[in-house]
Structure of Endonuclease/exonuclease/phosphatase domain-containing protein:
Amino acid sequence: MKLVTYNVNGLRPRISQHGSLRNLLSSLDADIICFQ
């Protein structure tokens, strides 16, 4: 099981690297994703 957490303040640069939030989440291949 793969768990990923993100602080939303640091999420914008990661989204811009992948083009969209959907692409970012797909690339992580995580079972659970938490935002704080």
Remarks:
- Residues 25 and 33 are 8 Å apart (CA to CA).
- The mean pLDDT is 93.
- The helical segments are 11-18, 21-28.
